[in-house]
Amino acid sequence: MKLLLTGDVMLGRGIDQILEYPSDPKLYERYIGSAGDYVQLAENAHGHIDRPVAPDYVWGDALTEIDRHAPDLRIVNLETAITTAKSHAPKGINYRMNPGNADVLRALRIDACSLANNHVLDWGRRGLAETIETLERIGIASSGAGHDRETAQAPAILRGSDGRRVLLFGAATPDSGVPLDWAAADRKPGIALLPDLSEATIETVARRIAAHKAVGDVVVLSLHWGGNWGYRIRDEENAFAHALIERAGVDVLHGHSSHHTKGIEVYRGKLILYGCGDFINDYEGIPGHEGYRSDLALAFVASIDEENDNSLSALSIVPFRIARFQLQLASAADTNWLQDVLTRESAPFGLRFVGSGPHELKLAHQAQ
């Protein structure tokens, strides 16, 4: 079974403005008051963007490249509310996309979105409800957020081409910027918020998974955790990831929140993506943190061997560069740079990456 996994899909603000049905561009940020200003920054950096663009525009070269790998399921972290709600959360940065633009998600043929992140309630609980309803309308499953605690914590149940079930659980931790009062509760919409990385939390996640998992199921935990910048993986995070595999039955840990890729581990044969980076954003032309290359977006294609305890059998990584709000195949030089970074950051886990053609990387060695 092949799973496509990406990091943060951020379709609000500037990207929403270039689509057919832009939202009200008014923002509540400290320095920028209009989403149109993000479009101008991108155009200053890389050239004019014709508007409106077609729903498949932002995915650019990713459409062909992902099709080439023929994943059974496509899973992303959707870090944008899809709503016309007018009441915003007073948190400084608020992402939303007009529901009329939802065909953008359908254009990538996404199967499921994790919604447990620090932007899905940017436009309140009405905005969350409309996001979930819009995804249901266009046939995309979701997990990690819901109308109450039970629905937020329940997995999206997906099926691979062989009919085997994939359970997608979504969760987030407060250190990713999620306000504590966003946690779902009885009769209270919200997200599946994990309070910490403690033993008690591990036991909670294990019980949650056990309540749904059947023999043969593949379990993916999509986890929004940690800060936006920095490669360091804390010992606490490493231990938590290991415990999720050893004791909670997680087969793939799909980590995100960092705006750039972080190290990768294969533990007991199971894939741990500590940070996938952003897959699409509107950050072009914004100075700061250039050394992390957040303009480079990665598509991870993980091959899961269902006959070998759902272990990872192969991992391919296709890098893209975001320019004019569109994913374009990364250059050979950018691919080499990513190879060096991924190998450097994954070396403590016994992994290295090699080129597989001018625009692709693959895992060359798995830790045992």
Structural class: alpha/beta
Mean pLDDT: 96
Number of helices: 9
Which radius of gyration do the C-alpha atoms yield?
A: 19 Å
Morphology: globular
The H-and-E topology, N to C, reads as: EHHHEEEHEHEEHEEEHEHEEEEEEEHEE
How many beta-strand elements?
Answer: 20
**Cα distance spanning the termini:** 21 Å
Binned strand content: 25-35%
Fraction of helical residues: 10-25%
| Low-confidence parts | none
Largest sheet: 10 strands, mixed
Question: What structural keywords apply?
Answer:
single chain, 368 residues, alpha/beta, ten-stranded mixed β-sheet, six-stranded mixed β-sheet, 9 helices, globular
Question: Which helices and strands appear, and what pairs or packs with what?
Answer:
Layout: E1 2-9, H1 14-18, H2 36-46, H3 62-69, E2 73-78, E3 81-82, E4 96-97, H4 103-107, E5 112-114, H5 124-137, E6 141-143, E7 145-146, H6 149-153, E8 156-159, E9 165-172, E10 190-191, H7 199-210, E11 218-224, H8 235-247, E12 252-256, E13 264-267, E14 270-273, E15 278-280, E16 296-305, E17 311-322, E18 327-329, H9 332-346, E19 352-355, E20 361-365
Parallel strand pairs: 1-2, 1-15, 2-5, 3-4, 5-6, 9-11, 11-12, 12-14
Antiparallel strand pairs: 1-16, 7-10, 8-9, 13-14, 16-17, 17-18, 17-20, 19-20
Helix pairs in contact: 7-8
How would you describe what is shown here?
This protein has nine helices and 20 strands. Helix content is 24%, strand content 26%. It is α/β, with parallel strands linked by helices and 368 residues long. Helix 7 runs parallel beside helix 8. The strands form four sheets. Strands 1, 2, 5, 6, 15, 16, 17, 18, 19 and 20 form a ten-stranded mixed beta sheet that branches. The two termini are 21 Å apart.
